[in-house]
Design goal:
Helix content: 10-25%
Largest sheet: 7 strands, antiparallel
Number of strands: 16
Mean pLDDT: 94
Number of helices: 6
Distance between the termini: 30 Å
Structural class: alpha+beta
Shape: globular
Strand content: 25-35%
Order of helices and strands: HEEEEEEEEEHEHHEEEEEEHH
Radius of gyration: 21 Å
Low-confidence stretches: none
């Protein structure tokens, strides 16, 4: 079937339904936790990792034993960018004047709570989140550690987190906007707004050429900046795609920027999947490339949505 011969989905993709699902997602608590990147990007013995979240500079590093630390990315002495400093014997040493941090409060520098879930690393920023803080982030269920193959893709768009979440809460665009990846997508159940607030989708993933794999998947928004897709039936059942939208700029910034940090955790009960786990270092770049192709389009969607919202022209 050709692209133009698909059944149109615009009547099903009702703006009010998507908007209501987005409002419910935004009302869910986050505990002020923000995903800043992949766990493996913050390496013991490596250089520090820097990210700006909600206009706040954040620096992360690990001790020699692998314990993550996070805090302000601004040196309290004269404002050096600590993301450009060095980690020596598990301590962060400012490259301007040598001020040394071990992760505890020192000389006006304050740490931020940090959590490593094994795939992603989170930082709690109470001033940015403005909610009741929680001890740990709410990490969505994933295949058990050692069972799946995970990869993390990151991209940045000119939009706000809500535009990224809204894109994911519109599954109807899938086979129209991404015909190279999705075939015969249909939403078989819409969210009801109660305890079962999920989009249930039947879709065939295009693997190569005419080879497609049909699955059933659920899309949920467990938090205000997170959308989870879980395969519930078919090949790769229990696999997840976990999309996090992290604001880089402060609220109401004239030119907002948002980081999309997407974790893909693939699993299968096929006996041969053990080989895939063994080949994870080779598979991860391929998984990131696939996610990157989708997000090249989906960030265009999110950026367009923000541009229309910002000028009062968004029809939804």
């Amino acid at each position: 079937m050709g692209w133009a011969a698909q059944t149109p989905t615009w009547r099903q993709a009702r703006p009010a339904l998507i908007a209501d699902a987005l409002k419910r997602a935004q009302a869910r608590p986050s505990g002020n936790w923000f995903v800043v990147g992949a766990s493996r990007e913050v390496r013991a013995g490596g250089r520090p990792y820097g990210r700006t979240v909600g206009g706040v500079e954040v620096v992360l590093w690990r001790s020699d034993s692998g314990v993550p630390h996070a805090g302000s990315g601004v040196c309290p002495h004269l404002g050096a960018p600590l993301r450009d400093s060095r980690v020596v014997c598990g301590r962060l040493v400012c490259h301007w004047h040598g001020l040394t941090l071990d992760g505890s409060p020192f000389a006006g520098w304050q740490p931020f709570p940090v959590y490593d879930d094994g795939v992603l690393i989170w930082v709690r920023l109470d001033e940015v989140g403005g909610e009741e803080p929680t001890e740990r982030p709410s990490v969505p269920p994933r295949p058990a550690s050692g069972v799946g193959v995970d990869a993390v893709f990151t991209a940045v768009g000119r939009c706000e987190p809500e535009d990224v979440v809204a894109n994911r809460l519109d599954p109807w665009h899938g086979s129209w906007f991404h015909p190279y990846s999705f075939v015969d997508l249909s939403v078989v159940r819409e969210p009801s707004g109660d305890g079962d607030d999920a989009f249930v989708v039947d879709v065939s993933f295009r693997v190569a050429g005419r080879l497609v794999v049909p699955v059933r998947a659920e899309f949920t928004a467990p938090g205000p900046r997170t959308v989870l897709m879980r395969i519930t039936e078919g090949e790769g059942a229990t696999s997840v795609v976990e999309t996090h939208a992290t604001p880089l700029t402060a609220p109401d910034h004239a030119h907002p920027r948002t980081a999309v940090v997407e974790a893909v955790v693939a699993a299968s009960d096929r006996p041969g999947f053990a080989l895939a786990r063994a080949a994870a270092p080779v598979l991860r770049p391929l998984m990131r490339r696939t996610a990157g192709r989708l997000w090249r389009d989906d960030l265009a969607y999110a950026e367009r949505r923000w541009a229309l919202r910002g000028t009062g022209r968004f029809p939804g």
